[in-house]
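Thread: "does anyone have the structure for this chain?"

Original post by V.I.:
We have the sequence but no experimental structure in hand. Need at least a predicted one for the grant figures.
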Amino acid sequence: MNILGIYGSPRKNGNSDIVLDKVLEGAAESGATIQKLYVRNLKNLSGCRECGACEKDGNCAVKDDMQPVYPLFESADVILLASPIFFYGLSAQIKALIDRGQAMWSRRMLNKPREEWKNHESGRGYLIAVGATKGKNLFEGVKFVAKYFYDALDMSYEGGLFYKGLEGKEDAKNNPEIMQEAAEFGRNLVKKV
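Reply from O.Q.:
Generated one for you, tokens below.
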């Protein structure tokens, strides 16, 4: 099983990084092959230009750091998006990457008969979101974004891990329950085939 972990935080070693590291550690212990993508390291990544070029052949016309990411999407059986919550949304860095998934959506529409669009055959997607506040609806919007991102990749959205009230940079690491839950989540990803 190939698992791609996408680190969406602009801050290195923050709570979303820590939780994703632990999930991937658990998955690796259970035999998964792990790939890591740090969106903050994609220095030349533009947002979608909505130029429509991908509607012709499913390929993005923008030549930047996103081009090597598309094959990672295609080779993954499971993709984990991890992001801190900024103003009840995902980080700008990961949102740019998600918007560039439009090329994958176009490819899916070109290559898959309409009656099969509701079938997700390329794998499973999960979201890890961490927020400092404790608002009742803190994760509602980002769950929808993840669901439709994974739909573009022809993957089913399967939920994830959501933690409120993590303000300090390493609050997740200092919470044994979160660390245990994250490791177990990773192990269960591999068991769920």
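V.I.: this helps a lot. Strands lie at 2-7, 33-38, 78-84, 123-130, 155-163.
O.Q.: and The chain has one domain: 2-191.
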